[in-house]
Amino acid sequence: MKRIGWPTVCLLSVEFVALCVWVGGLIVLVGAVIPAVFNTFGGQEAGGLFLTKAFEGYNRLVVIALVVLLVAMGYRQWRGEGATVSRSEWILLSAMGGIAGLIILVLHPQAAALQAEAYGLKDEEAKKAAFEAFFRLHKPIRSLYVVNGLLGISLLVLKAKRSLQEGIPA
Question: Rounded distance, CA 125 to CA 69, Å?
Fold first, then answer.
């Protein structure tokens, strides 16, 4: 078994925590928060605004997790001590970061603007058209969140597998 220093063990632990925040946060939002909001709040508008804010908070955590993962994995790669970073790990993290960037920087702001516009309209026909535009944009955003969650789970599995195969933390 290769000897790994405490700094590397700590960095690996932080990587796992960052991935748990990224994937676990999404699971909590989808599995618990969204159903609770629409079964509790007094209407679509209040619930929709709450969820927009909840996902903005989640997106901030994703950015922090991405930075933590990049720094920790970069350090392990640079250090080259036992627990190196595989090419597959970099590919998965790059895909996750790219998808998160697309959601956070491009799609979510557009969806939030469409949502605010729809809630501000008084005319029912205009409101209906605005909501249709919002949901057309929102559908691919939901799909990208799911894909990103699956990529995160894949990265967790890859790290666990490497840990078991090499007898060192992945």
Answer: 46
CA dihedral 117, 25, 67, 100 (to 10 degrees): -40
What are the backbone angles phi and psi of residue 20, rounded to the nearest 5°? -65, -40
Q: 164 is written with which tokens?
A: 């078991």
Residue 5 φ then ψ, to 5°: -75, 160
C-alpha 23: how far from chain center: 6
Task: Quick: pLDDT tens for 140-152.
Answer: 999 999 999 999 9
Identify the residue with better confidence: 141 or 76. 141
Q: Give a yes or no: residue 1 inside a domain.
A: no
* Residue 81 is assigned to a structural domain of this protein: yes
Domain for residue 111, yes or no? yes
Mean pLDDT of the 111-116 span: 91
25's CB contacts (< 8 A; 6+ apart) are 58, 61, 62
Residue 47 lies in domain: 6-165
Residue 148, in any domain of the structure: yes
CA 72 to CA 85: how far, in whole Å?
A: 10
Quote the number of domains for the chain.
1
